[in-house]
Design brief:
six-stranded parallel sheet, 16% strand, globular, Rossmann fold, UDP-galactose 4-epimerase, domain 1, alpha/beta
Length: 314
């Protein structure tokens, strides 16, 4: 088995930080970054980088053969808010890219697959508090529908063909390293930028809109931990719930005020409020804790401190 890793969608919010971390662990030459366009120069220059369309099977096969790839992290996707503006394009990207990789694994061209799911798989009929691993899933967005469908296919390819595919339902992710990527939880990144630049922020979600959130370092740690766990420990092949913390715009504003006392927030909810209203307030992730010892490390104040300190430097 070859230990070379290919990351598809390496220039995105999660992909760029995952690439850097995996290169740190495995060495730059063992981690091939790829995306439909070049990312930041740091990512492109730190190791092998290929321009790659995630829906182009032939191009993916060429790269897999060229680098003798064993593991693929498929991070390319159109996110919730962006996908609502181009539903069929989002469906095509999110689903065709997944089938390309699952079929390559079925044909033993690669050995292991990571594919990210999301809290978007849940919907208005899902229990909103401490959402359990197995529950009602009736998503109302194109993104959520594609992720729920993807989960079913991942489980099918595992049980039918023995494909070693692993997945996490990411909550909203917060990072200072990459700009927001068109998601509904992006307010929790924008707010820090604007707190420093303007001393105020107008939230596109209303006060009281609780959503499951997580600092990017925790999400990257969870992803690598899941992929490094022995196959027999991975009991769920659809996707694991991953909980971090939950807060609403008022709470994040209060946390910022501890560091910037004059900070002010107001509210102008837009179409993203309707999306947020269908998602859980908080997530229960007992299975991830039991199966591969998952545990988050960042609470809200630690996130705020880290975000403000690092954005100031930038």
């Amino acid at each position: 088995m070859t230990d070379t890793i290919l990351i598809i969608g390496a220039s995105g919010q999660i992909g760029s930080e995952l690439t850097a971390k995996l290169r740190e662990i495995h060495g730059a030459d063992k981690v091939i970054a790829s995306d439909i366009r070049e990312g930041n120069s740091e990512l492109v220059n730190a190791g092998p980088f290929e321009i790659l369309d995630a829906t182009d099977l032939k191009a993916i096969e060429t790269i897999i053969d060229k680098y003798k790839v064993g593991t693929v992290y498929l991070m390319a996707a159109m996110l919730s808010a962006t996908a609502e503006k181009a539903p069929m394009k989002a469906w095509e990207l999110n689903m065709n890219s997944l089938f390309n990789i699952l079929n390559l694994a079925k044909d033993k061209r690669i050995q292991k697959v990571f594919w990210p799911s999301s809290i978007a798989v849940f919907g208005p009929t899902t229990p909103a508090d401490h959402t359990p691993q197995t529950t009602v899933m009736e998503p109302t967005t194109v993104y959520g529908i594609s992720k729920q469908t993807g989960e079913r296919w991942c489980e099918y390819y595992f049980s039918r063909y023995g494909v070693d595919v692993r997945s996490i339902r990411y909550p909203g992710l917060i990072s200072y390293k990459t700009p927001p990527g068109g998601g509904t939880t992006d307010y929790a990144i924008e707010i820090y930028h604007e707190a420093l630049e303007k001393g105020s922020y107008t939230s596109f979600l209303k006060a009281g809109s609780y959503l499951p959130m997580m600092f990017m370092d925790d999400a990257i740690q969870a992803t690598i931990q899941l992929m490094e766990a022995p196959a027999e420990n991975i009991k769920i092949r659809s996707s694991y719930n991953l909980g971090g913390i939950s807060f609403d715009p008022e709470e994040i504003a209060a946390s910022i005020k501890k560091y910037i006392p004059e900070f002010h927030i107001d509210y102008a909810p837009d179409f993203r409020q309707d999306i947020a209203d269908t998602w859980p307030n908080s997530i229960e992730d007992k299975k991830a804790q039991e199966d591969w010892n998952w545990k988050h490390s960042f609470d809200l104040d630690k996130i705020t401190q880290t975000m403000l300190e690092n954005l100031k430097k930038k």
